[in-house]
Design a protein that fits this description.
Distance between the termini: 36 Å
Radius of gyration: 17 Å
CATH topology: Rossmann fold
Order of helices and strands: HHHHEHEHEHEEHEEH
Number of strands: 7
Structural class: alpha/beta
Number of helices: 9
Protein name: Phosphoribosyltransferase domain-containing protein
Largest sheet: 5 strands, parallel
Strand content: 15-25%
CATH architecture: 3-Layer(aba) Sandwich
Oligomer: single chain
Strand order of the largest sheet: 2-1-3-4-5
Amino acid sequence: MAEKFGESEQLEESERLMQLEHNEEWASEVQNKEILELYKPIKNILEQIKNRIRGGEYSLIIGEDASGRVPALIVSHVIKMVYEKNGHKYPEVKFFAGGRRLFWGEDDAYLGKIESITEKLSHQDNSHKVLVVTDTIDTGASIEPISEALNKIGIRFDVITIGHLGSVLIGDKNLFDAEDVFSGGSHIPEIHGKHNLSGVKKERWYVFSDKVNSEDFDKSSRSDIKIIADKITKDVFSD
């Protein structure tokens, strides 16, 4: 079982990461510290799957809205740059709101969400894999609508999460019936719940998320995403 971090441990870990990152000149250009914090966990994860990326294994990247949108955009930026260099077709990028089923009775909203996601993915080429990106996994229930839809139509997929908590066993191949699950560490990233940075919010009954402040997202988050993605691409894929 992954160790649960208390609030003080999360703050201490976050401050340690920020101090290390701010010592580098490039980091001073990043306007949002919550996005800067994503550099190290995403870099560490992509180092583990860089051969899969170089081989063009992923034809679709799915980001879980809302706070999983920024990590997914960073990952997709990196993958697109690597694919361009290696002559692969750009992967599609889609965003779906996750959600938890009710503990009792029929959960029509949850089942409807699975059905809608399944329909949106029904024409996806299953000869390539899908990469599902989220910011935090606790029990894993929040991305179950996405994983159930993918399993329903027989598409292989990997899951990456910036942080994880609770009883989730990262590396367990039975988790979500994914081929592999990768985590940036046992913690809650600062971006979790910061919907203002992703420009969206979500309700449990919606498959897609609503925009809340796309103007601010365009001004700062998009710039930060590009800076982080460029740095990761240089650090991980320059050899």
